[in-house]
Amino acid sequence: MSTILALLGSKRKLGNCDVLLSEAVEGAKEAGVRVDVLRLADLNIETCRGCLSCVYKGTCAVTGDDMPRLIDKVLAADGLIVAAPTYLLSPTAVIKRACDRGLMLSPYLEKFSGRQRVAVTITVAGNARWNPLGVELLNQFALAFGYRVLDYLEAYSPGPAEVLLQPEIPERARELGRKVALGLIQGITARQAGETQCPICYSRALRLDPDGSVTCPICLARGNLVPTSAGHKILFDPESLKDHFWSPEHRRFHLADWIVPSRDKYLTNRPRLKELLAKYRN
Ligand SMILES: Cc1cc2nc3c(=O)[nH]c(=O)nc-3n(C[C@H](O)[C@H](O)[C@H](O)COP(=O)(O)O)c2cc1C
After folding, report:
1. CA–CA gap between residue 110 and residue 75 (Å, rounded)
2. The predicted structure's pLDDT at residue 114
């Protein structure tokens, strides 16, 4: 039986994310998968030290925190549901903290290739005007942990569990849970992206350059803004969609052609850097 990992990025017990994640978990179970729930916000996840030991040596230099437990769960789960509230315009810090440690998956990337790994995400904020990055950064989290994003839910409700006052939202969360489970069991049916939305990560926060070219800051897919009778749409370059930042091909390239050679370059420069650093030591 397939396993889905359900992650909660809020400290609030019985808060909005907790309730919506429970609905999604029930939906996934009804569709016939096993679900493993982890309260991400209650785990001890240390800050990445930037040593890249995970890439060079295959083990993280941080010891004694809960990150290896999270990595084991991610390796065991072909599906992911992640729910987190927005604090100060983006998902809670635990999402970014875990994402920064995502290179710990580097030694296992080949294990994923050819496997269907799919995710759905749930962002909750107090007000739709103040959540510009909730969908974007939760979807980035899913991509960083090796999952393709199938769909997402945005919910807006400030007080704990107030989301229950809009019954269509818990229903939609349940459907989302069913969708990720069926994505695993029956194959992929991903949400259709809007005309000004990235088709990989569903980002609507896109970089527009003066020449009309558009880059998605989450997955680096590229396209062009083109006029339509209704206004504008973005035509994405199919090659950049195939080879986006989180694709297995690009991840291999990033490790083998960038991170590994940058170490050799650094080691060559190290004696000179040591001299240049002398005046900063105190
Ligand atoms: C410190 C803090 C910062 C917040 N920042 C935002 C924000 O930038 N935008 C917004 O719409 N809501 C913001 N909220 C509201 C929460 O996103 C909202 O209460 C949400 O329902 C919390 O989800 P939970 O019940 O699952 O914890 C903030 C709440 C807190 C406590």
Report:
1. 11
2. 79
